[in-house]
Amino acid sequence: MWIDADIALVLSIIFLGAAASYIAGIAMDGVMGADGFGTLINALILMTGGFIGYYAQMHLPIFGRDATWAAVMAVGGAFTGLALLAILKALSSRMGF
Known about the structure:
Layout lengths: L6 H26 L6 H21 L7 H28 L3
């Protein structure tokens, strides 16, 4: 891990990430409209994608192990996950599923 964190720092990072993903979920709900998933589901998808992006950054050898890459991969993973699920939802609704 790239920081020597105690439980208070880890919990504060998780809570700040949850608050930021909720605010981004509200914004994405307004932007995506009918192709979106709702505010809370958007926030859950963004949090899950952020953790997946962070996990990928920690375990792929092509990226450095500093905080900048961790933040970039977490944000990239969050919005990539939301975009992929929105594309799948739009395609399935236009095909009649």
